[in-house]
Design goal:
By secondary structure, the protein is an alpha+beta fold. The chain has 4 domains: about 180 residues, Multidrug efflux transporter AcrB transmembrane domain (Multidrug efflux transporter AcrB transmembrane fold); about 90 residues, Alpha-Beta Plaits; about 240 residues, Multidrug efflux transporter AcrB transmembrane domain (Multidrug efflux transporter AcrB transmembrane fold); about 100 residues, Alpha-Beta Plaits (2-Layer Sandwich), CATH 3.30.70. Helices cover about 60% and strands about 5% of the residues. It has 27 helices and 11 strands. The strands form 3 sheets. Strands 6, 7, 8, 9 and 10 form a 5-stranded antiparallel β-sheet that branches. The chain has a 4-stranded antiparallel β-sheet with strand order 2-3-1-4, sandwiched between helices. Strands 5-11 form a two-stranded parallel ribbon. Strand 8 and strand 9 form a beta hairpin. The radius of gyration is 29 Å and the shape is elongated. Keywords: Cell membrane, Membrane, Transmembrane, Transmembrane helix. It is a multi-pass membrane protein.
Amino acid sequence: MRRWAEFVVRHRKAVVAFWGLVLVAGVLLAGRTAGRLTTDFSLPGQPGTVTAHKIERTFGSGGDTSPYLVTVTMPAGQTVTGHEADVGRVFTAVGGAVPGLRVIDEANTGDKAFRTKDDRTAYALVFYRFNPSPRQRLLTEPVHAAAQHAMPAGATVGVTGQDVLASGGDDSGGPGVLGETLLGAVGALAVLAFVFASFLALLPLVVAAVSILATFVMLLPLTYATDVSFIVQFLVALIGLGVAIDYSLLFVTRWREERDRGRDNHEAVVVAMERAGHAVVFSGVTVAIGLLALVVLPVPFMRSMGYGGALIPLASVMTTLTLTPAILGGIGPRVDWPKLRHENRASRFWRRWTAAVVRHRWIAAVGALAGLAALIAVFLGVKIGLASSASLARSGPAYTALETLERGGVPTGALTPMEVLVRADRAGPVAARLARVDGVSGVVHASGPAGNRGGQSIVVVIPDGETVNSKSVGVVKRVKSVSDGLPGVVGVAGIGAAQIDFLHAVYGNFPLMLTIIALLTYVLLARAFRSLLLPLKAVLLNLISLAATLGLMVIFWQHGHGSEAVFGIAATGAITFWIPLMVFAFLFGLSMDYEVFILSRIREEYDAGHSTNDAVIEGIGRTGRLVTSAALILFLAFAALASGPGTDLKTLATGLGFGILLDATVVRMLLVPSLVSLFGPWNWYLPRWVARPLRVKPSYPHPERDGRSGSQGREPARA
């Protein structure tokens, strides 16, 4: 690290020029990168996806999309009976509104289930072709316009469905990536201004801007090699903002500390690289490990978020360890003005806080673990799936149309019908058998091209309720089980079938992902901390913290204790299937950042001759304000992310925000100091036979007498 610092400072003008070119390239290419991202959540090789693709190839629509529900409500005093032809013309017009639409209604099924009980409203299922482009807008407007143009005099038309409800009838996309990033940057600048109290507060923002644009440049070639989820652009911009600022904050704070100790500027940069730069490298690798573990999942969009997400810490580490020292080595002292805050002593507040925790370590440890255990108990009741229709919209035309259908006795399962692909000559018997499955409200089979093409037919199964989560897909499992035993059935597709496939493909492989992350992280941290116990504690605390975070998400979103007050969104009834994994992958690494920052400094103080308790107090006294500020900056970035479109993005953002705050407070400021103090000399034990393959020096605790606790730590025997 010293040689690297010397190289960067010596060639600082070239380094700054290089990153200037990257900045320009990023500005020019970011839009192209965003345009190549996709919204495809399919699961290749899984039964539901295979069937969905067969349906799409044969019928040109449906399969892996939930249909629009188009309603026609007759004026007061009139009923659908006697106006069937008028209603039929509306749905025929809808079918021609956009190429590829497939309409299932009473006219082509002969089933009066497409009417409400009061006979005033008729509806149709409108299946469409999935478009993976994130710029693809909903078809609500052309479908509604076609229906309105053909509707009978005095009637009203409506368009609803899962996608329409999720958008609230507005698919404008919120403030956009740039707007959200600027929101996060403004909040971060306020925190940095408080931390540095000088113009130096602008430096981490400059580094973050370069890092974000560099990530978009690196992401572009990846979009040509594989499909990359559109969610990655939000993660790159906002998590990239927080991570890059955190790393730069750590580096600059250490540089100021060394300057305040009397070192000249050149030596201060070098020492900051040796100390803080070392922690940044380990933190970046830890974050990357958590994200790259997603590639073991047989799900393309999750893999793409793993690949794309791993570029975030890579770019952040590169810019922090090159651009930051290059700028500090040149104009750092001039920019650090007016210097109202100094770093030549540990924070008095954090020293007093940590000393109190160390004195009452048993109370702190037991209390914190009890609180986390309560949240973990809540997490055990999690439902994995999609948000219920009740939480997607509480007003607007789509909500009104759904409310009309529900009042008329139409089951909400119409929002998530199953499409059973069968051989054409078996459609009748299959439909009759599936109609008797428990939890099925109705089964329809359209005549003509809407339900029969190329010797194959689609039998549409409507369940009693929405099949949107792990607790409501029982009827889908029963339909699949019965279908497997019926001749002529090709397969079952639909939202419910996709939920089952995802639960099997992703959560079935989760133990492997967890094992890979835990083992790699343990080895990495054993090398960083030169300890057997500290990395084990770090991994276990991270897992406990993550489970507690998911418990908070269940309370806030699934049960709705907070989501309605903050976002105006009712209880979702479930956590979207991919979000817990993304929260886990990101938070495992991000929260480990703080573990590395704190324990690296505690290790440094212990190696300087302090007792374990004194090292803990001094280490957190030096890093407490840093970690708190870094966590607050990340939290503000996630708050900006929560302003994005859709409930899913808000759920992900709040989950990440909960995790960062919980980890930086309860875990790092209560559990870490109390447990390290309790473990005493055992923290520093790394025998020679373990140190040798790790290529580090062995570690044994030195004799210590802790005046604060009044007892001498018992030293483990040397191997």
